């Protein structure tokens, strides 16, 4: 959870400080969109190599490398003087996040085989919580250091301290045995390119996260157009993220208590997203607080349920982690396009009405896709995806791990 807090704070910290950043650097709306697009694309590209990194330096080393990249990227923002430096730091931080996100699902499944839903919910909630922390704290830090003229350098770079703390704690952790550090064969993400199920998971994950990335990039600016301050806009984004935290934590646990079929719960979260985007599109007389909570519930729940969904497809932790890495890798590259599209619409129309309508249409298209995830067909959908030799010789089989975890509980 401490590691996960670092995976979104750098991303949400820039949106509430958009105006002082634009005034200081002269960055345009297309380049502003790249502050979200580039890290999301880098997350996706790096996630695809998570299995290879796992086989070479293990999960402990891979996560540590990712945290070090995030810390360096955030620290560099303190001396960033222009758009190029900001974009470079965004891409580097995104690469670090992608590496962590590719490795962590396998660690969760290996360490908590009987409590995947609960632990994935905690992990997802911490990711969302870090995003809310970035949106709310960065404007406060900027004003604390700069007074009337917000010091956006301080507001963006403060997150390097959290990344360094998480890195030191991670490296000194001894309780968790990283059995996933053992070399494995046949786990290349290239195998997923031939799997229709892997592509379906990636498409759903990417389209769902496209709504999140668009809101992170533009929601505070949307309210700034209505006369709101940067702190107020950041607070709305933080409130949305708080709702994401609650939903990401609760939905997997609730869904798991009702069985393995996650489809009804995915539909529920998509319906919440649709209601929120429609309220923004039609300028419904609904308080911004209510819209933020509804959208946060839908986005947070859908994210964590997608993570559980990928891990459920395969019993072996390393194989499930590789599939989740492919889902995130391709998915985040799909999600990276959304803020660019919505930013282009904003620049050419002068408002966000059509942008919100586009995101609502994406949700409608997702509804029939998620209905295809019948748990009775998981095995058939992933048959032959990876080698069938199971865990490496000398490692306990998954059934044994599950039994031991159940006995311990």
Supply database-style keywords:
single chain; disordered C terminus; mainly alpha; about 400 residues; about 0% strand
What can you tell me about this protein's structure?
By secondary structure, the protein is mainly α. It contains 16 helices and no strands. It has helices at residues 9-12, 18-25, 29-47, 50-76, 83-111, 116-146, 152-157, 159-171, 196-224, 230-257, 263-281, 288-312, 317-349, 353-370, 378-381, 398-408. It is globular. Mean pLDDT is 82; it is low at 388-409.
Explain briefly what this protein structure is.
The protein is mostly helical.
Strand tally, please? Answer: 0
Which class do the helix and strand fractions yield? mainly alpha
Estimated radius of gyration: 20 Å
Percent range for helical residues?
over 70%
> What low-confidence regions span 5 or more consecutive residues with pLDDT below 50?
388-409
- Broad shape: globular
Give the topology string: H per helix, E per strand.
HHHHHHHHHHHHHHHH
Mind sketching the topology for me?
Blueprint: H1 9-12, H2 18-25, H3 29-47, H4 50-76, H5 83-111, H6 116-146, H7 152-157, H8 159-171, H9 196-224, H10 230-257, H11 263-281, H12 288-312, H13 317-349, H14 353-370, H15 378-381, H16 398-408
Helix pairs in contact: 3-5, 3-9, 3-13, 4-5, 4-8, 5-13, 6-10, 6-12, 9-10, 9-12, 9-13, 9-14, 10-12, 11-12, 11-14, 12-13, 13-14
């Amino acid at each position: 959870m401490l590691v996960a807090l670092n995976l979104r704070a750098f991303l949400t910290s820039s949106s509430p400080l958009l105006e002082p950043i634009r005034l200081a650097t002269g960055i345009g709306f297309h380049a502003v969109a790249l502050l979200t697009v580039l890290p999301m694309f880098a997350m996706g590209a790096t996630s695809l190599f998570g299995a290879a990194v796992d086989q070479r330096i293990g999960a402990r080393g891979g996560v540590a490398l990712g945290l070090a990249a995030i810390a360096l990227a955030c620290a560099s923002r303190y001396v960033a003087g222009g758009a190029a430096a900001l974009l470079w730091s965004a891409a580097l931080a995104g690469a670090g996040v992608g590496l962590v996100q590719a490795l962590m699902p396998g660690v969760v499944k290996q360490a908590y085989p009987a409590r995947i839903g609960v632990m994935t919910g905690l992990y997802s909630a911490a990711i969302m919580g870090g995003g809310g922390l970035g949106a709310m704290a960065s404007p406060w830090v900027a004003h604390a250091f700069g007074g009337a003229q917000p010091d956006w350098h301080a507001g963006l770079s403060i997150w390097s301290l959290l990344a360094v703390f998480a890195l030191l704690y991670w490296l000194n952790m001894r309780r968790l045995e990283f059995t996933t550090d053992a070399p494995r064969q046949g786990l290349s993400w290239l195998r997923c390119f031939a799997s229709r199920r892997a592509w379906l998971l990636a498409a759903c994950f990417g389209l769902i996260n496209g709504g999140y990335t668009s809101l992170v990039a533009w929601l505070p600016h949307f309210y700034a157009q209505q006369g709101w301050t940067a702190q107020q806009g950041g607070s709305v984004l933080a409130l949305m993220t708080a709702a994401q935290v609650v939903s990401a934590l609760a939905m997997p646990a609730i869904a798991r208590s009702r069985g393995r079929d996650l489809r009804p719960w995915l539909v529920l979260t998509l319906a919440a997203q649709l209601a929120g985007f429609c309220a923004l599109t039609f300028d419904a007389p609904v308080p911004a607080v209510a819209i933020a909570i509804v959208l946060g519930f839908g986005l947070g729940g859908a994210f964590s349920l997608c993570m559980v969904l990928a891990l459920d497809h395969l019993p072996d932790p390393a194989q499930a982690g590789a599939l989740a890495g492919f889902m995130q890798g391709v998915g985040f590259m799909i999600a990276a396009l959304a803020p660019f599209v919505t930013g282009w619409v904003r620049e050419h129309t002068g408002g966000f009405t059509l942008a919100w309508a586009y995101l609502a249409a994406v949700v409608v298209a997702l509804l029939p896709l998620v209905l295809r995830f019948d748990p009775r067909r998981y095995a058939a959908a992933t048959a032959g995806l990876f080698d069938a030799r199971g865990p490496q010789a000398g490692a306990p089989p998954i059934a044994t791990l599950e039994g031991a975890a159940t006995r311990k509980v």
